[in-house]
Amino acid sequence: MSDAPSGRLVLEGVAKRFGAIQALDEVALAIEPGEVLAVTGPSGAGKTTLCRLIAGLERPDRGRLTLGGADLAQVPARRRRVAYLFESYALFPHLSVFENAASPLRAPGQLPPLGAGELSERVQQALDLLGIGHLAGRLPAELSGGQKQRVALARALVQEGATATLLDEPISHLDAKLRHRLRGEIKRRLAARPAPAIWSTPDGLEALSVGDRVAVLIDGRIEQLATPQEIWERPASVRVARLIGDPPMSLVEGRVAQGEGPPALVTGEGARLPLQPSLAAGLLQLAGREAVTLGLKPRAIRFLPLGEAGAGSLPQVEIYTVEPFGKHAIVSARIGAALLRAKTAGNCGLAVGQRVGLQLESDGLMVFDGRSGRAIELPSRTAGVA
Amino acid sequence: MAAIDTDLAVSPASATEPRWYPYALIAPAMITFVLVALVPFLFAVFISFHQMKYGRLGDFAGFENYGALLSDSRFWNSMAIAALFVAIAVPLEFMLGLAGALMLCRPIWGRSALVPLLFIPTTMAPIVVGLLWKIMLAGSWGLLSTNVIEPLGLVGEISIFASPDLALYALIFVDVWQWTPFMMLAFFAGLQALPVNPYRAAAVDGATPVQAFFRLTLPMMAPLLVVIGLLRLIDAFKVFDSIFILTGGGPGTSTEMPSVLAYKMTFEFWNIGEASALAVVVWLLFFAFCNVFYQLAKKKLNAF
Questions:
Q1: Regarding the domain delimited by B6-301, which CATH topology (the fold level of the hierarchy) does it fall under?
Q2: Distance (Å, rounded) from C-alpha B13 to C-alpha B18?
Q3: Does A141 sit within 8 Å of B201, measured CB to CB?
Q4: Where is the ABC transporter domain (chain A) (predicted)?
Q5: Best of A91, A94, A165 to disrupt the B interface by mutation (most B CBs within 10 Å)?
Q6: In terms of domains, do A292 and A183 share one?
Q7: Which residue of B has its CA nearest to A93?
Q8: CA end-to-end span of chain B, whole Å?
């Protein structure tokens, strides 16, 4: 099947509107053969519209799509030979699980056509991989939601000769154990294909784990397109920061106050997050950017019990929640309306209501513009907290 | 469809209901059914085993009426005519109805006004349909006969219903006129209810519109097609009103369908015993046919 015409998938200035909703706007992407682009974003961000445009089920209002250099504008869906896993599964209700998975291989575009033996072997292999081999004879109406999703997944996986693979939330309805196992298995198969792939998911961490690159889609626009590492380390905006992280970055909105007392970030409710003078000065240097959002990664926040060395000189906060996860725990404290979430050792010994010292590490700090939400590069990277 | 769990309909309240409650709920339907369908039918079966002429129940006759019926060439003639009528009318109505339904699914200007209009032939009383076509096709002055049929030279200046060779086909035409819109609207409703996502998946798979029709639309519509087709088949076999008005079974016996023959046996020959035997034979035929058909459909279609 490797003789299939394939190559880079390129989107330039693609826009699509449904009534009053701008589903996609100015989307520009290039995906290499063998590359998996993870597309993440909240529901309604345009992930499904993006897949449908590439599959040919919708036409863009503006912009250009090319696959291997060929313009797709005049190519109908049935000639694009894309493997597409629908978020809604789109199984054929009158066909068995096996026939559903085999359907793309029986389609007329398949060149060369597979022999019956090879076809059934490939389909059965896909079903077995997904743990639904024993359901091959069942009808979709007799399956659970997760089983249906796996049939849809099998249908996408058997199309080794597809010109592109589009997986729209492929593992969202599977149980956690299966999700962990399949994430790697599917990624491996996509990487082996000489075709670009898109993996859409509302789960930011899943996007980081499966994508060679990650596109964060928000309100139809690409908010950030970068490697998983870059997105993890330096989210381009507050909106990206909210989607990524385990737990996501803590965000504190406020104004830098200097003058009476030690410098601090004062939130809308009047709560104060004390800042190290150098950071406060750096923030004030940025003209007109007094209103900022401070992003604190879990590793930047430490809660020190009051008895511990050095804790006495720190600003005090009260522990708000403690969620142990075995090896680690997520502990939070409140500053005004904002929640500061730290990742601690599982046996941290902290209790709800306990007063602790708050220590912030400059390493995991980010500053965002208070109005636009975009990340701001500080003049000096010596940011820290008193 | 096979997995719809009917147990869900059983309410947990059943534990607190008196035992007679469900029976009370179905009683009106059952009483009506027994009074207007089961009792007359059983009475007809009873009569068919007796001599009954001129409305007086005679002696028990065993299978005499059945013997007389099965050796009556007029009975076999009526069955052959009915078979021909059904074999032509029903497939025509079925295919025209399906084609029309597919056309209705396209965005046509004025569709919402068109759909109720299409129902007119089906909602007309069959007697009215009969009279309408009797006038339209009347010899020497009917609108359609003078303008279309006579110029074609099919029949002279007589009604097409008076032609022994063509009368049956004229009746088939009227039946098709009356029932195609019903089929069309039933299929249209079925098409509207089909899920849209499998079509998207088929398009992405590479299926052409024609393939999508044969591999998706037809299989997904199959249960509806089977039920509507079967109903129409039974109904067409029993057609009475329009034939009674248009030809009365004639000329000769050339359009004498079983229901018309049964009517004549009863009210013209007053041989009620043999007429009942005819009714029972037709019932048996359909009972067997529907059962076989239903079992086949259940197995082949994964439906019902």
A1: MetI-like fold (1.10.3720)
A2: 10
A3: no
A4: 9-244
A5: A94
A6: no
A7: B220
A8: 7
Nearest to A116 by CA among A127, A108, A105: A105
**B158-198, pLDDT tens digit by residue?**
777 877 888 888 899 999 999 999 999 999 999 999 999 99
Q: Check if the interface score ipTM surpasses 0.85.
A: no
Residues A281, A201 share a domain: no
Residue A196, classified by CB atoms within 10 Å of its CB into exposed (0-12), middle (13-18) or buried (19+), is buried
Domain count, chain A: 2
pLDDT, average across residues A207-222: 94
Question: Is A1 within the bounds of a domain?
Answer: no
CA neighbours closer than 13 Å in the CB half-sphere of residue B273: 19
Final residue of a structural domain among A168, A202, A234: A234
Query: Would the CB atoms of A107 and B205 count as touching at under 8 Å?
Result: yes
A258 interfaces chain B, CB cutoff of 8 Å: no
Q: Is A294 helix (H, G, I), strand (E, B) or coil?
A: strand
Residue A341 belongs to a domain: yes
Is A385 inside any structural domain?
no
Cβ contact A86–B1 (<8 Å):
no
Judged by CB atoms closer than 8 Å, whether chains meet at A93 and B195 is answered as yes
Cβ contact, residue pair A78, B206, below 8 Å: yes
Instruction: Please check whether residues A302 and A185 belong to one and the same domain.
Output: no
In the DSSP assignment, the letter for residue B217 is: I
Looking at the DSSP assignment, which residues form a beta bridge with residue A256? A265
A217 and A304 inside one domain: no
User: Domain for residue A242, yes or no?
Assistant: no
What is the chain B residue with the closest CA to A56?
A: B204
Q: Which tens digit of pLDDT belongs to each residue from A56-67?
A: 999 999 999 999
DSSP string, A213-247: EEEEEETTEEEEEE-HHHHHH--SBHHHHHHSBTT
Contacts of A184 (CB under 8 A, 6+ apart): none
Give the model confidence (pLDDT) of A146-177 as tens digits. 999 999 999 999 988 889 999 999 998 898 89
Same domain for A44 and A166, yes or no, is yes
The residues in A 98-127 lying below 8 A from B, measured between CB atoms, are 103-104, 107-110
Angle at B246 between CA B241 and CA B250, to 5 degrees: 105
Is B144's pLDDT higher than 80? no
Chosen from A48, A49, A78 to mutate, greatest number of chain B CBs within 10 A: A78
For residues A217 and A310, state if they share a domain: no
Residue A47: domain span:
9-234
Given A189, A209, A234, the domain boundary residue is: A234
Write out the DSSP string of B3-43. T--GGGGS-GGGGTS-TTHHHHHHHHHHHHHIIIIIHHHHH
Q: Looking at the whole model, is its pTM more than 0.80?
A: no
Residue A127, token pair as written in the block: 């079903």
Q: Cβ contact (<8 Å) for A78 and B197?
A: no
Distance CA B143, CA B273 (A): 43
Residue A74 belongs to domain with CATH number: 3.40.50.300
CATH number at residue A344: 2.40.50.140
Which of A88, A107, A108 has the CB atom closest to B197's CB atom? A88
A52/A89 same-domain check: yes
Instruction: Say if strands A355-360 and A328-335 run parallel, antiparallel, or are unpaired.
Output: unpaired
Helix, strand and coil in chain A, % to nearest 5: 30, 35, 40
Q: Are residues A372 and A336 in the same domain?
A: yes
Between the two ends of chain A, the Cα-to-Cα distance in Å is 63
